[in-house]
Design brief:
By secondary structure, the protein is of the alpha+beta class. Helix content is 60%, strand content 8%. Strands 1, 2, 3, 4 and 5 form a five-stranded antiparallel sheet that branches. Strands 7, 8, 9, 10 and 11 form a five-stranded antiparallel sheet that branches. The protein has a two-stranded parallel sheet with strand order 6-12. A hairpin with a 5-residue loop joins strand 9 and strand 10.
Length: 778
């Protein structure tokens, strides 16, 4: 008599992954019900990420940087009268100097703007500013709401109409520029490009998945899983940010969805192909799924630990938004890991081999091609008539004349991945040298990469906003709209000494590269004091473009040093403004590129090595991800700087590559290393293990890489900065899938495992001993 649990009795050699897989596969409805309840409860109870987004834009950098502390002083001591501004740039039509009558027209314009009662306009901030050559005058208009607020899309056009109506019949011409005008003029084109890229990405998403999965059911599986997991992950992320009192990044929800799509695609495809492999081996469906889930489940903790360490390093990068981004992504990958171990196998258990419909490639002996199976149905016989004539004779004659063509014909079970694996196992040194050489050539372009901090460079030049910037250059230095702002404060909120303050302003204006002071107050002219008199604000104009490398060098070096050393006793100087912020961003990027991100990558590799119990895995993972990231940046540099003629690449590109390329490549490399270890545990030699690893894991890695590449490549159509990011991510994922994980890592593993052992020296006493000769018996 047998007990009721004998059918599911766990052998003593089973580990926790075998037991979990068996529990999930044999209880799928319970697992799906638990996840449905969790998703419903999270959506109903958790706050949304929109609720965690602050009402005002957060600082770009953390408080450790001086530009962020300067912005905090500005908010505390000089409360802004407006959330954003638009600048009216006025000049004569004939290009001559402004006369007294012209300036009277400008004063009339300022009064008309205030009296117009345009929505979201608070008034004119300060008196008009005229250039030293009297050819250009600027009027700054205050607006409520952020510059990116869609509510202002109608405000700037109405302001322009008012300006044109007021100046009609005068010898003056005007252009409205500034942050609000920049968004108004460029938002439609940007949103149109983003819409085209999104439509293309979504339109090709399902066809790509149909090609990879060869099943409509399988193509819809990631969509359904991500929909449920995304709701839970965003809710948990919102709870964490609420508990930590952190504002959410406005892009956090989108980034979580993209990261979840990438991780879910990898894990689902890994399990999909492993399940099909066991079915082809003749296993019963549930047994095959239990085995596949346990095998894939063993790499999920390593993958999750690596991704969590990489994402946990984001708060160390210095970007203020990276803190909430790091917390949110760690929560997302943790939820996805739980789903990969439970929800995905449960859904596959419910569907069984129907997952692969209409393909029968999962069967040990497929029953003919799709055409032959359709011909069995009478109602489709007319569309698939049997052949009534022999095969074409040209192919037969060709094979007879060229017998070597038969050798090129693909044999069953000997596809491209098998051939690649066999070649890698036989010639690991050749494969490793070719892979490394290719990556070195691609990564060589990284040496010429120039970070570009001018976010306006990629915008169209035929807008009124751009014409206004050009008009400013006729009378003001290049940095007129983005001055460097120096704040001087006393320790105990004591009033500043006016004489010492004037000497300090003169000392700052005398720094080489500074053209002078920008009038900040109608009374003092160049120095503005706070209401309590304890803080002064001094605006400095630079001779060069505020985003140029020489400007960043000046503000981050000599100007900042002079501001600190020349400050009167008992005061503290802080240098802020746009140029100071980007000088700090450049410093943060250098620190991240050479310390933070490499350290995070090494720690992630060590965590993977401990979980996989393979110390060489750390070397493989570090080399593979570093070369893939460098190659992606190198190719992007070739395309945009050398071929496209761009002056540089976005300063955010290394962070984007780290977020998507390094994390995706980590998943692929971990799968390869785990499969290599598994093949060796089955008693196979290193060369055969590499062959079978590429043959069996290659389709999963290649399919996942193609899906993600198609998704990110669509963003190239958006143009501008998104084109750079999309190309870098797409190239990086292709390299991770088809170069590093599929060839470089297996070939290195074979070379390390088959390296010649060090020859042991012969003991001295036996160095010259010989076997005695046998003496024949007499």
């Amino acid at each position: 008599m047998t007990s009721g649990r004998s059918a599911t009795q766990w052998p003593e050699e089973e580990d926790v992954f075998d037991r979990l897989a068996r529990l999930v596969v044999h209880n799928p409805w319970k697992v799906v019900l638990v996840w449905a309840v969790l998703a419903t409860a999270t959506v109903a109870l958790a706050p949304t990420l929109d609720e965690q987004t602050g009402s005002k834009p957060a600082a770009l950098l953390s408080e450790r940087y001086e530009s962020t502390r300067a912005a905090a002083v500005a908010t505390a001591k000089f409360p802004p009268s407006a959330d954003s501004t638009a600048t009216v740039v006025l000049s004569r039509v004939d290009g001559g100097p402004l006369t007294t009558a012209d300036r009277a027209h400008v004063d009339s314009l300022t009064r008309r703007i205030v009296a117009a009662g345009i929505d979201h306009i608070t008034g004119v901030t300060g008196p008009p500013t005229i250039s030293t050559n009297h050819r250009v005058e600027m009027v700054t208009v205050g607006l409520t709401g952020h510059a990116e607020d869609h509510a202002q899309l109608d405000t700037v056009p109405r302001l322009r109409d008012t300006v044109r109506a007021t100046l009609a019949g005068t010898p003056l011409t005007a252009a409205v520029t500034g942050d609000a005008a920049m968004f108004t003029d460029n938002a439609p084109a940007f949103e149109a490009g983003l819409l085209v890229a999104g439509v293309v990405a979504i339109a090709r998403l399902l066809p790509d998945q149909l090609i990879i999965y060869r099943s409509p059911v399988g193509a819809l599986l990631p969509v359904a899983v991500i929909g449920m997991i995304g709701a839970i992950a965003t809710g948990i992320a919102a709870w964490i940010l609420q508990a930590a009192d952190l504002p959410a990044n406005p892009s956090l929800a989108i980034i979580i969805t993209i990261v979840l799509y990438g991780v879910a695609t990898n894990h689902i495809l890994f399990l999909w192909f492993r399940y099909r492999e066991r079915l082809r081996a003749g296993d019963e469906p549930r047994t095959a799924l239990v085995t596949a889930s346990a095998r894939v489940g063993r790499i999920v903790p390593a993958s999750t630990a690596a991704l969590a360490i990489l994402f946990a390093a984001l708060p160390l990068t210095g970007y203020a938004a990276a803190t909430s981004l790091g917390f949110g992504l760690v929560a997302a990958v943790a939820v996805m890991a739980a789903a990969s171990l439970t929800l995905v196998p449960a859904v596959m258990s419910l569907l069984g081999p129907k997952l692969f419909w209409p393909s029968r490639s999962w069967q040990p002996n497929p029953t003919g091609s799709l055409r032959e199976r359709l011909r069995r149905h009478r109602w489709l016989a007319w569309a698939n008539p049997p052949r009534t004539r022999p095969p074409s004779t040209w192919s037969t004659r060709l094979r007879q004349r060229m017998p070597w063509l038969a050798k090129l014909r693909r044999k069953p079970g000997d596809g491209g991945f098998h051939q690649a694996g066999r070649f890698t196992g036989r010639r690991p040194a050749v494969v490793a040298a070719a892979s490394t050489g290719l990556l070195a050539v691609l990564a060589f372009g990284l040496l010429g990469m120039r970070p570009d901090y001018d976010h306006t460079r990629h915008l169209p030049s035929d807008t009124e906003w751009a014409r206004g910037l050009d008009a400013v250059q006729a009378g003001f230095p290049a940095g007129a709209l983005s001055p460097v702002i120096v704040y001087l404060t006393t320790a105990a909120d004591q009033p500043l000494n006016p004489a010492a303050l004037r000497r300090y302003a003169d000392r700052l204006a005398a720094v080489p590269g500074v053209s002078g002071n920008l009038p900040a107050d109608p009374d003092t002219g160049r120095i503005e004091l706070s209401q309590d008199g304890s803080t002064a604000r001094i605006n400095l104009l630079l001779n060069s473009d505020p985003y140029a490398p020489q400007s960043l060098d000046l503000v981050g070096g000599e100007l900042r040093d002079t501001a600190h050393t020349a400050a009167p006793p008992g005061t503290t100087a802080l240098v802020g403004g746009v140029t100071a912020t980007f000088a700090d961003i450049r410093h943060a990027n250098h620190r991240n590129l050479w310390f933070v991100l490499p350290t995070a990558g090494i720690l992630a590799a060590l965590a993977v090595a401990l979980l996989l119990r393979n110390l060489t895995a750390a070397l493989h993972l570090t080399v593979a991800t570093a070369l893939a990231a460098a190659s992606a940046l190198g190719v992007t540099t070739y395309v945009f700087q050398h071929i496209g003629g761009h002056p540089g690449l976005s300063f955010l590109l290394p962070m984007v590559v780290f977020l998507f390329v390094v994390t995706t490549g980590t998943d692929y490399t971990i799968l390869t290393l785990a499969r290599l270890r598994e093949e060796k545990e089955l008693g196979k030699d290193p060369r055969t293990a590499a062959h079978h690893t590429i043959a069996q894991a290659g389709p999963a890695i290649g399919g996942a890489g193609l899906l993600l590449t198609g998704f990110f490549a669509a963003t190239v159509l958006a143009g501008g900065l998104l084109a750079q990011m999309g190309l870098a991510i797409a190239i990086g994922i292709i390299i991770c899938a088809f170069v590093t994980s599929m060839f470089l890592v297996p070939s290195l593993a074979v070379l390390l495992a088959t390296r010649p052992k060090r020859r042991q020296p012969t003991p001295p006493e036996t160095a010259h001993t010989t076997k005695p000769l046998a003496v024949p018996a007499r």
